[in-house]
Design brief:
The complex is a heterotrimer. Chain A is mainly α. Chain A has 13 helices and four strands. In chain A, a hairpin with a 2-residue loop joins strand 2 and strand 3. In chain A, helix 6 crosses helix 10 and helix 8 crosses helix 10. Chain A is globular. Chain B is mainly α. Chain B is 77% helix and 1% strand. Chain B has a two-stranded antiparallel ribbon. The longest helix of chain B is centred in the C-terminal third of the chain and has 27 residues. The two termini of chain B are 25 Å apart. Chain C is α/β, with parallel strands linked by helices. Chain C has two domains: 157 residues, Rossmann fold (3-Layer(aba) Sandwich); 130 residues, Response regulator (Rossmann fold, 3-Layer(aba) Sandwich). In chain C, helix 3 packs parallel to helix 4, helix 5 packs across helix 6 and helix 7 packs across helix 8. The chains are: A mainly alpha, B mainly alpha, C alpha/beta. Chains A and B meet through helix 5, helix 11 and helix 13 of A and helix 6, helix 12 and helix 14 of B.
């Protein structure tokens, strides 16, 4: 029983941690922005900032569902492959029926089914999430290849494409969507029992189970949400690129995980926030933007990303151990 | 010792169903469906193809037993290969090149160990970071191109024979024997599962767990350096993305082999079987001329099915 | 006529190789990945030709796109299966040389396709001059721009032979147009999403872009989408002659695509391989002439790959 009591104050601590974590990250973003605006005239323009936010939105949609999974202490390696499969199914659906709504339903449906598969493997078959979702990565990827048989599908209705490339009051539509999902996500994780239970499972699964939280059904839920968000991301992808082919998801998974980690969510679970993930994605996008603006060799990009991942987490360890000792 | 040995053999028997069952089933299916499968040249072929992966999967077993992970090992192997080729080309000496590969491997291994043990950065994040660094270095050094024109003696290490046995198999066998020796017959070996299952107790016993962790990750890097020699020899060149992603194959092999991701339970023979199972699957599907998209799905199913059997066995216990 | 050829070929094969008849010939085809439509067109071309001359095909495609260790393993596995010949697109033109040397040692004839290997023995090589393709596609772009203005270039995977040659061709074409300024060259790894984002970023620093040269069609479509979303216009060219690019040209969103006709490469590759097996004369090298597809000649190339037809086997050597 003492474990349950231990879990409760731990959770309170995470809230205050969130605030400091996010503050540090905003500071980092500000520093990057100042540095970039000093070296490139083009950086600090409304156009470019909107451009950066629009690019960051794609990362955010993929990373937000993943954040929920990681908050429970699990991982989802199938995220890129799920984006690929959802995109390809949705693309064919839109082309064959002409209905964007059916396409959207297909993308989110396929994503949710893949997510449910992940969840059931973890909760029912007791396969560690790392391995279960790695297996799913191959299955989803293979299904995509089989489905597409080397072709690409392209040319969607203008109404659908507005989702990715349209503007409303001068601001790209994906940015509105991102802000909306950030708000919903904030409410969901911080203001609902579900959200608190997700944090509690990550902080201490055994204690969460003992205190009556339906751990398995919450785990299934986060995996389904992760898949559904990947489905949503695939729609943004389709709407922006106006085209789908089998290799969409291959290079997306590790950068998405990096965005979550840079955003301050702990891979042990229980610590982190969606807002942090948003900033993590923003930092990664800013790096690419800066390198393009300065005409730097893109070969340096993985190296810089790697260093930032290490730096972000190291600083977190530093500041958190201070918070803990208070 | 004898008690430990007995417990070991019991647990070995208890583990047999998962991976061995899958392996036997695959061999039976492929042998009956493809005449070329069960020939001596093809079986040698499978073992040769598995040798590089085994060199990564062995230390990965240790690392996973400590509840760790090494995502950087494929990129470090690639960087080792790039370093080997670049240095061998510059100095004209394969030996110096090989030493460079080993040095790169060891450096990255110890760097991982230091970040994990001393700075307390979780293994997943640490090695995700060093993966990026190693991959970036590969691209920057080569500017994306293959390095060729290496001394011809290089080919021996993958295609040569030692006492009639293909050289990579000799290397793999030695690596297996050494890692088996370390895990089951040294004090370091007893620390490995304890690091995963009961780190506190280890600390109380006065063991410097940080040094042990650094050594384990260091071994991983060193093995990646040795694997770099085989890979470079196999393709007579170095390519900046040649082994990117191989870390996941290694982790899958370890998991398929029955090593647990928690509680420090691991099984080196299982890893060997896991590596061979993956090799047999890929080879058999190629011989059956299975379409590539179906092959992709089969690899995923293998991982899930093997782990499913393991879960069933656990449920029975 | 056709019957006569088959008859002759059966006689020659029977004379040389004993048990093998036309129906027993198996050819292993190696391509780089199963995601790029270019290689799908190659595979469709080989299948089309194989059906016409009655040989069996095995397609080997790495399950991780462009994986060197994997294609190496696939060659080793194919050698176990002993096909009559290999038709081979290397994932890397240097790193795959040892694998082909193994096939040479096993006595299996190899026909090179699309990317020329840096070593090993091949019976014949069928491909297109990527340099010429890059040069002519670039020329078409620079002429469309009226020989003046600003151009940006998006590169494919650095270090790949196709990218190196296509970029070299473009840069040489640029030399004849002193009034065109190359603003920047950035890699987007032959990928759509990267091309879109890189293009979006480049547009921030360069308010006036008149032309975009990309080393493949996937990047071209990414650039087209980026320009369209920003309400900007430029001449965009790509390479591969994909159906998608043809449709974009038809819609007036893209200027041109340089085609090395992957379908025809597949046809010629397979037919040459079979000719060699049947002891018919083959050319050491067979290059597909690059075609620049733009609005002027669009019609004749706007035909789905699956309904195209390969040339006849007896016509191949003459070409």
């Amino acid at each position: 029983m003492s474990q349950i009591e231990a879990a409760a104050p731990k959770f309170k601590l995470t809230v205050s941690r969130d605030v400091t974590d996010v503050a540090y990250r905003l500071l980092a973003v500000a520093l990057i922005c100042i540095a970039l605006s000093l070296v490139s005239d083009a950086f600090l323009t409304a156009n470019n900032l909107l451009n950066v936010l629009r690019q960051a939105s794609l990362v955010f949609f993929m990373a937000s569902g993943l954040t929920l999974v990681i908050l429970t202490g699990k991982i989802d390696l199938s995220i890129g492959a799920t984006v690929g499969l959802s995109a390809c199914v949705a693309a064919t659906m839109i082309k064959s029926t002409g209905s964007s709504w059916l396409g959207a339903a297909a993308a989110i449906g396929v994503g949710s089914i893949v997510g449910l598969g992940n969840g059931l493997m973890v909760t029912k078959l007791r396969i560690p999430s790392f391995i279960a979702t790695y297996g799913m990565l191959w299955v989803a990827q293979g299904a995509t290849y089989y489905y597409m048989s080397g072709q690409s599908v392209y040319g969607f209705p203008a109404g659908f494409r507005a989702l990715g490339s349209g503007y409303l009051l001068g601001i790209p539509i994906p940015i509105y969507l991102m802000v909306a999902f950030l708000a919903i996500g904030y409410f969901f994780t911080k203001r609902t029992t579900y959200g608190q239970q997700i944090y509690a499972i990550g902080a201490n699964t055994v204690a969460a189970r003992l205190s009556g939280i339906p751990v398995n059904s919450r785990l299934n839920l986060v995996f389904v949400l992760s898949g559904a968000m990947a489905g949503l991301a695939s729609l943004i992808y389709l709407a922006r690129l106006n085209s789908a082919e089998g290799d969409i998801g291959e290079t997306l998974t590790l950068p998405t995980i990096a965005a979550v980690v840079i955003g301050g969510t702990s891979l042990f679970g229980g610590v982190g926030s969606l807002f942090g993930t948003f900033i993590g994605g923003l930092i990664l996008t800013l790096i690419l933007n800066g390198m393009n603006l300065l005409n730097l060799n893109a070969n340096w990009q993985p190296l810089v990303t790697g260093l930032i991942v290490l730096l972000a987490v190291w600083l977190d360890m530093k500041t958190r151990s201070k918070t803990d000792s208070n | 010792m004898s008690e430990r040995g007995l417990a070991q053999s019991m647990s070995v028997l208890g583990r047999v169903p998962g991976v061995a069952f899958v392996l036997v089933a695959l061999v039976a299916v492929f042998a009956s469906m493809s005449p070329g499968f069960s020939t001596a040249p093809n079986l040698t072929n499978i073992l040769l193809q598995s040798s590089i992966l085994l060199l990564l999967a062995l230390p990965m077993t240790f690392i996973i037993m400590t509840e760790g992970l090494d995502l950087s090992i494929g990129a470090v192997l690639t960087l080792g290969s790039v370093a080997l080729a670049a240095v061998a080309l510059a100095t004209g000496s394969l030996t110096v090149g090989f030493i460079a590969a080993l040095a790169i491997g060891l450096t990255f291994g110890l760097l991982n160990g230091w970040l994990i043990a001393w700075l307390d950065i979780p293994p997943f994040v640490t090695t995700l970071g060093t993966l990026g660094i190693a991959q970036g270095l590969c691209l920057v050094i080569t500017d994306g191109t293959s390095i060729v024109g290496l001394p011809s003696g290089l080919q021996f290490f993958y295609s040569g024979y030692f006492l009639g046995i293909p050289f990579p198999l000799v290397i793999a066998a030695i690596a297996y024997a050494v890692m088996h020796g370390i895990l089951y017959h040294t004090r370091l070996g007893t620390y490995v599962p304890a690091l995963g299952g009961n780190r506190e107790a280890l600390r109380h016993a006065g063991v410097n767990d940080r040094v042990v962790l650094a050594v384990i990750y260091g071994i991983g890097g060193l093995m990646a350096g040795i694997a770099a020699l085989l890979l470079t020899s196999r393709i007579s060149s170095a390519h900046p993305t040649a082994a990117i992603g191989m870390e996941f194959d290694a982790i899958a092999a370890v998991a398929v082999g029955g090593t647990q991701f928690e509680r420090g339970e691991g099984w080196l023979l299982g890893t060997l079987l896991g590596v061979i199972t993956i090799g047999v699957l890929r080879n058999g599907l190629n011989l059956l001329a299975m379409p590539s998209s179906i092959q992709v799905i089969c690899v995923g199913l293998l991982v899930i099915v093997a782990l499913f059997f393991d879960g069933m066995r656990k449920a029975h216990e | 006529m056709k019957n006569a050829v088959v008859l002759i070929s059966i006689l020659t094969v029977a004379g040389f190789a004993g048990p093998a008849t036309a129906a027993d010939e198996t050819i292993a085809v190696f391509t780089k990945n199963q995601t790029n439509p270019f290689f799908e067109s190659v595979r469709v071309g080989t299948a089309n030709a194989a059906k016409a001359v009655g040989v069996k095909l095995i397609q080997y495609v790495p399950i991780k796109p462009d994986s060197i260790p994997e294609q190496t393993s696939q060659v080793e596995d194919a050698i176990v299966k002993k096909p009559n010949a290999l038709l081979f697109i290397p994932v890397d033109y240097k790193a795959m040389v040892p694998a082909i040397e193994k096939a040479n040692a096993a006595g299996i004839p190899v026909t090179g396709l699309t990317d020329r290997l840096a070593g090993g023995q091949v019976v014949s090589f069928i491909g297109a001059e990527d340099y010429r393709l890059g040069f002519e596609t670039g020329q078409s772009l620079l002429k469309a721009m009226g020989g003046k203005g600003n151009v940006v270039a998006l590169e494919g995977v650095k270090g790949s032979i196709s990218n190196t040659d296509r970029m070299k061709g473009f840069n040489d074409a640029l030399k004849d147009f002193p009034n065109v300024k190359l603003l920047t060259t950035q890699p987007a790894n032959y990928q759509r999403l990267q091309a879109l984002q890189v293009m979006e970023n480049i547009m921030q620093t360069h308010p006036q872009i008149d032309g975009v040269y990309t080393a493949n069609d996937a990047m071209a479509t990414g650039a087209v989408e980026a320009m369209a979303a920003a309400n900007r216009k430029a001449f965009v060219v790509g390479i591969n002659g994909s159906q998608e690019a043809i449709d974009l040209i038809k819609a007036g969103k893209m200027h041109a695509t340089g085609s090395s006709d992957p379908f025809m490469q597949g046809c010629l590759g397979l037919l040459t391989t079979v000719r060699a097996l049947r002891k018919m004369p083959v050319q050491k090298e067979l290059m597909v002439t690059p075609v620049i597809i733009d609005s002027s000649n669009l019609k004749q190339y706007d035909v789905p790959v699956t309904s195209r037809v390969c040339p006849k086997i007896e016509d191949v050597a003459a070409k």
